[in-house]
Amino acid sequence: MPVESEQLQLQAVVVCESFSKSDDNQFELSSMFQTEKESQLNITIAGKSILQLLIERLASNGVTQVFLCYAQKSIHENCLKKMIEILEGKVQAELVHSNKFLSLGDIIRDLEARGKLKDHFLIADYDVITNIDIRDAIDQHRKRYKKNKLSVMTAILPTSLPPTNPIVASALQTFNVGLEPATNQIVWFSSQSGPSKMSIDLSVLNSFSEMTLITNLYDSGLWICSPDVAHLFEDNFDFQDMTQFVRGVLDNEEIMGQVIHAHSIEPNEFISHALQSFSQLQIISTMLLQRNIYPLVPEIIDKKFSLQPNGGTYIHQNSKVERSTSFFSQTIIGKYSSVGKGSSLKFSTIGENCKIGQNVCLFRCFIRDGVVIEDSCFLQNCFISSNSIIKENSKIKSGLCFIGQNCCIGPKCELSSSKILISSKNFENSLECTGNEMFGPEAIGYFYEMNIKELNERQYANLLNYEDLSKFIRLVENDDDISNVLESSGAFSDSDVDDIADDVGQMGVLDYHEVFVSEVQDSIERNANEGLSNIEDLILEINSSKFAYNTSLTDVVQCVTETVLNLNNKPSLLERKEWLANAQKNVNRFKKLLVHYCNVQASQLTAVLTIERMFNENPHLVPLSPNLFLFLYENDVIAEETFIQWSHSDPYDSPEAEWFDKSATRGKCKEFIEFMLQDDDEDED
């Protein structure tokens, strides 16, 4: 538990510009927004902007005042003013603008000159996503400073790449750090990212009897600062960013005496930039859907999001999904959006007020608000900005595709390239889409593409390195491009090319919900085949899978209930009486397992809703619903109070709810519920 913080003001400086973004790759998100003259601060996940999620997280960690600092007034100011209104009553927020802001150093020096920074403060980039509780780190920082005024800063350092996916940090600035083990003081720092060799001055090794060297750390975008940090920035105009600040403090330690400490995050904690690349945004979105950065999960961000039973898909209550729509997994659909029948969505984010037509296939797409995608479109690795239109029968198969706001392509447009940018603005070396057959007769916008051959020599060399697959997949995100690049290089044999392409494919984001369901099913089937050897061991296996994949208890109950009832008992293949007999037999065999996970009324209600959905999706089984419910009641699996609560609850909602009768099971169970009510009255008497 974190130590109780001192009742002191804690300020935060949020940098709302992309000063540190590299210009090497003009297809990074920040560059696209520059082209579009649009604010990247508007990017939302689960209906909330990433900036709002950050500020709310800072407020929950004791921050009382936030300075939102920006340079591009025409682009960011309206968005930030709305943010001030949203945050009213939660935290004191103030806009700080200057056309002279060209770096973090300029911002800190300006705030110091205005007398804004009065105590310890945090520095955070606008796109930081985190679930860290930093109150303990802040308390330790303050105690060190109280004891030694030369302890000027604490750096939040993720000690390893996020375990969920190694690609998650591929777009971030990385560095190597030497720590003094006893105090976690940073004694050596290098921002070199990539070289296999590093140089450490002998004076560092002579000054400390022991040093822990940690390599390949990534910039978390969050720093805890003492009041002296502002003075140091003011006195040293060559300090432009945190890398230069840390290096400058360490270089002058013998003269000035200031020291910097590190705070390592816990294994279940996460912090990362979300908008330094499109692949970064994709993976952060998927991690949120996989509940890997709890409590940042859709149903907590917006209570109207509900988790569907088909693999990590969240649908807003005010959205509409047509019949026969198939959701593969890890997809979120925002409010007032609709999806037509026969569409397939995987690893995608759909914003608000979007219209997805029929037979549309989206794979790793980030769709912002107000986008229209007409029927029979196929889109892969696309970032589509607000109010754009993709006309029917259009196909984009790209390593990376950015489509700016108010653009239109199609109909019957086919684009395939390593990297594509379509913007509403005319820019250097762009090709006008209007009137060009390649983009469809109704196209609006300007087109630019970048092929692999245009990469500079350093980037191209990375493509030929087995150990750099993470950078490789960030540059080229489809198997065809991977094979073409490796084959044309002449550095690998045909079999090597196939092996590397397979390795890159395996590095993609896993569907952890499907993996969890598969593991639970395997565990239950194996236990049944072994003659129910030990239910306690089975429970331990399921719990291990639950914690390994960060799965909610609701998902566990749904999975266990459906697996037990359908074990060697598929509803679509059997007559209903045969299915019921098998289901009752399975309940008897796994009664102890069901009772374990349905030990409270909320879990029992989840189980009943799951069975209701299963009956409604298989209408020929509906007449047997009272029989099964009575069997569960008589065998003390589900209590009568739960059935009564179920009769008054909302019907189970799912993406397929449009094509089956959601009230069928309840209609058939009216007499059963009356029996439950009579039984309840007798108990009261």
Quick overview of this protein structure:
This protein is of the alpha/beta class and 685 residues long. The chain is built from 25 helices and 33 strands.
Task: Please give a handful of descriptors for the protein shown.
685 residues, alpha/beta, Spore Coat Polysaccharide Biosynthesis Protein SpsA, Chain A, Serine Threonine Protein Phosphatase 5, Tetratricopeptide repeat, seven-stranded mixed sheet, 33 strands
Secondary structure: helix percent: 25-40%
Instruction: Please summarize the sheet with the most strands.
Output: 13 strands, mixed
Q: Outline the low-pLDDT stretches.
A: 1-6, 21-27, 160-171, 452-493, 499-510, 655-659
What is the first-to-last residue Cα distance? 48 Å
Radius of gyration: 28 Å
- What is the second-level CATH architecture of the domain at 11-170 and 219-273? Alpha-Beta Complex
Structural class call reads alpha/beta
Q: In CATH, what is the class of the domain at 11-170 and 219-273?
A: Alpha Beta
CATH topology of the domain at 11-170 and 219-273: Spore Coat Polysaccharide Biosynthesis Protein SpsA, Chain A
Global morphology: globular
Full CATH superfamily name of the domain at 11-170 and 219-273: Spore Coat Polysaccharide Biosynthesis Protein SpsA, Chain A
Mean pLDDT: 79
The percentage of residues in β strands lies in: 15-25%
Number of extended strands: 33
In DSSP terms (H or I, runs of 4 or more residues), the helix count works out at: 25
Oligomer: single chain
List the helices and strands and how they pair.
Elements: E1 11-15, H1 29-36, E2 44-45, E3 48-49, H2 50-60, E4 65-70, H3 73-87, E5 92-97, H4 104-113, E6 121-125, E7 128-130, H5 135-147, E8 151-157, E9 174-180, E10 185-190, H6 202-207, E11 212-218, E12 222-225, H7 227-235, H8 242-251, H9 253-256, E13 259-264, E14 271-273, H10 278-289, H11 298-301, E15 305-307, E16 314-316, E17 320-321, E18 326-329, E19 332-333, E20 338-339, E21 344-346, E22 349-350, E23 355-356, E24 361-363, E25 366-367, E26 372-373, E27 378-384, E28 389-390, E29 395-403, E30 408-409, E31 414-423, E32 431-432, E33 446-450, H12 457-463, H13 469-475, H14 479-489, H15 494-506, H16 512-529, H17 535-548, H18 553-565, H19 576-589, H20 591-597, H21 601-617, H22 625-634, H23 640-648, H24 664-668, H25 670-684
Parallel strand pairs: 1-4, 1-6, 4-5, 8-13, 16-19, 17-20, 18-21, 19-22, 20-23, 21-24, 22-25, 23-26, 24-27, 25-27, 26-28, 27-29, 28-30, 29-31
Antiparallel strand pairs: 2-3, 6-12, 7-14, 8-12, 9-10, 9-11, 15-16, 31-33, 32-33
Helix pairs in contact: 4-7, 14-15, 16-17, 16-18, 18-21, 19-22, 21-23, 23-25
